[in-house]
Every structure is written in structure tokens, then in C-alpha cells.
Amino acid sequence: MAELKTKVHDQDVFEFINEYVTTDQKKKDSVELIHLMQELTGCPPKMWGESMIGFGSYHYKSERSRQEGDWFLVGFSPRKAAISLYVYQGTETQDDLLKELGKFTLGKSCLYVKKLSDIKLDVLSQLIESTVESLQQKFG
To answer: Which of 23, 25, 50, 137 lies at a 20 to 30 A Cα distance from 76?
Structure first.
């Protein structure tokens, strides 16, 4: 079984943002996301892998394979092309929320936004809360 490469570590989140993020707008959006996600999860931000910031964690075991590991409840990555938001579980309720969110692109396991002003933060908050609730119910 392959070991998951993306793991939590102790790099300072704000140091990462200052070094990695190249635009002032994306830095501002990253700090705003940190405050929002920390407030909604009650968990401090932690670095996961080289460029993801996660909040909280859970241990999963795949039902289809022997894969298992730890992952964050919600998180984001301020990538060059867009901010990747890891806040989506694909539930029917969340699909309804996506219709109200604003301007984004849906990836396989995340949402991509150019800047936070393109989306409604109250809807994003609802997505975050529903993801945390769903994961906690499923994984404890």
C-alpha cells in the first residue's frame, strides 16, 4: 500500500503565504480564508504538504481499497492560477449551495476561485459547515 505523501507539518502558515503567494490580493484572500475557516471549524491552520492549509483532521479508511490516512476537514491552497478550496463533499444540499456561490470552477475534489470577491462568503461558510458536519458524522 502506498503511503500518502501529503501530511501535516509545522511550517508557519503565514510565513508560507508571505513566501509562496505572489499577489497582494491573493495574500489578503488567504488571510481572510484562514480567519473564516478557523472560526467555523474551531481548529488552527496547519500546513499540509507543500502548499495546502488545512483545518482540523480526521482518519479515513477507504471502503474500496486498503488505503487509509489522515486528512484535513476543510482547507485551501493559494495556487498561482486560482485558490483551491477543499470544502466540497458533493451532497445534494451542497449542490444546491453551489448554485448560489458565485463565480467558480468545480474540480474533482475542490472548487477553484480567482478571488474571494467572486463568491458569496455566507454561502462558502455554509459549504464549510456542511462539510465539517458530514465528515465528523462519517469518521467521528
So the answer is: 137
Question: Could you give the CA distance from residue 43 to residue 15 in angstroms, rounded to a whole number?
Answer: 19
Residue 7's CB: how many other CB atoms inside 10 A?
12
Rounded to two decimals, the pTM is 0.93
Summarised one tens digit per residue, pLDDT across range 6-58 is 899 999 999 999 999 999 999 999 999 999 999 999 999 999 999 999 999 99
**125 close to 36: Cβ distance less than 8 angstroms:** yes
Q: Which long-range contacts (CB under 8 A, 24 or more apart) does 84-89 make?
A: 84/52, 84/110, 84/111, 84/112, 85/33, 85/110, 85/111, 85/112, 85/113, 85/124, 86/52, 86/54, 86/110, 87/111, 87/124, 87/127, 87/128, 87/131, 88/127, 88/131, 89/130, 89/131, 89/134, 89/135
How many residues does this entry show for the chain?
Answer: 140
In angstroms, the CA 90 to CA 52 distance is 20
CB-side exposure of 25: number of CA atoms within 13 Å?
A: 11
Instruction: Please give the Cα distance from 19 to 79 (Å, whole number).
Output: 12
